[in-house]
Design goal:
heterodimer, A: mainly alpha, B: mainly alpha, about 75% helix, cell membrane (chain A), transmembrane (chain A), transport (chain A), MrpF/PhaF-like (chain A), transmembrane helix (chain A)
Amino acid sequence: MLELALKITAGMVLVALALNVWRLLLGPSLTDRILALDTLYINSIALIILLGIYNLSALYYEGALLIAMLGFVSTAALCKYLLRGDIIE
Amino acid sequence: MAEWIEILVSALLIIGGIFVLIGSIGLVKLPDFFTRLHAPTKATTLGIGSVLLASMVVHTLHEGSVSIHELVISLFLFITAPISAHMLAKAALHRQVEHLQGSDARDHRERAERQLPGDAPLENDAEASN
């Protein structure tokens, strides 16, 4: 039962990732593309956590945490670039 | 693993997956950037919180001791999601991204001025004519 739930959830997250990539390619403005990237990294964290449940391994958290931190920093840097034309003034 | 715990974990996973999917559908379907900002920052964050909770239950049972790692990730995401949404909204306002017609107060200015009584001039006009 858990395995079936894992597979269904992984399918939903994969569809979500595909929709995010669609918005990333389509996005009429730059901020839309940044928002799509932001959602893309959050959904990839979900996928990694699902893999961690499937393999019953604690090794995947470090990767998920790393993606979470770097994703936030990259979103903040891109927004800063759009706002000020420079990242570190 | 006990039967009811397996049901609990499966329910948490499915609910999380549904919320993640709804957030991404909103990102594609909603009409302008400022409405699109709502879907991923709220629905997706809730969905991933649910998935992390399920992972926490599984690993707590598997290792025999309380597993804290996922709590760190979910706390970090819950703190950073509103911050990044705020920064994105600020950047969009700065770049004057297209917004939905009627979602800005300035869109209604002309109609509001038209609806004023015709023979009653604005206060500033009356002062200027005196």
